[in-house]
């Protein structure tokens, strides 16, 4: 973070500002293009000590029912037991476990992603986008992150074989995150 903000106390958590955060994904479709989607309304918090920023507590929860691919029929299928099974597993979570690199620039964030009741370790490439205050007296932090997961590792195995060979849905999911964290100034 920058010197523009006051030292961060470990006891004061930062919270995700959902209205200024995006969790997007893309996946191969019919082996010829990519389909993009997003999840809305993430909830989460980050606590850390500025003197030891690699000692942190990060937890993010994402409601599966908010999936949006701009096609309601596809979204309903993605919420069904064929994919996310949103009725049985309404939330995906990410719990940060370690950071490699300097959090004031580019770094790697590793954590446990739980999706559809399956937990796997995932590493994201993260960039600190900035820090500062807002006009309403709050401190702000911005981060962007990218990563990939294999959907089959999380039990998302539905697919359809194509007459021409190949499958309808690719296995690798690209993840793109832009988030803004906020905390009231002390």
Could you explain the architecture of this structure?
The chain has one helix at 72-79, and strands spanning 14-16, 22-29, 33-39, 43-49, 52-63, 91-101, 106-115, 118-133, 138-150, 169-184. The chain is mainly beta and 186 residues long. The protein has a single domain, classed as Beta Barrel (Lipocalin).
In short:
The protein is mainly β and 186 residues long. It has a single domain (14-184), classed as Lipocalin (Beta Barrel), CATH 2.40.128.110. It contains 1 helix and 10 strands, in the order E-E-E-E-E-H-E-E-E-E-E.
Strand order of the largest sheet: 1-4-5-6-7-8-9-10
State the order of secondary-structure elements, H for helix, E for strand. Answer: EEEEEHEEEEE
Oligomer: single chain
Mean pLDDT across the residues is 88
Number of strands: 10
For the record, the CATH architecture stands as Beta Barrel
* Structural class computed from helices and strand pairing: mainly beta
Largest sheet: 8 strands, antiparallel, barrel
Task: Please state the CA-atom Rg, rounded to the nearest Å.
Answer: 18 Å
CATH class value: Mainly Beta
Shape type: elongated
Q: What is the terminal separation in angstroms? A: 17 Å
Task: Tell me the name of the CATH homologous superfamily.
Answer: Lipid/polyisoprenoid-binding, YceI-like
Kindly give the count of domains: 1
Strand content of the residues, in percent?
over 45%
Task: Set out the fold topology.
Layout (H helix, E strand, L loop, with lengths): L13 E3 L5 E8 L3 E7 L3 E7 L2 E12 L8 H8 L11 E11 L4 E10 L2 E16 L4 E13 L18 E16 L2
Antiparallel strand pairs: 1-4, 1-10, 2-3, 2-10, 4-5, 5-6, 6-7, 7-8, 8-9, 9-10
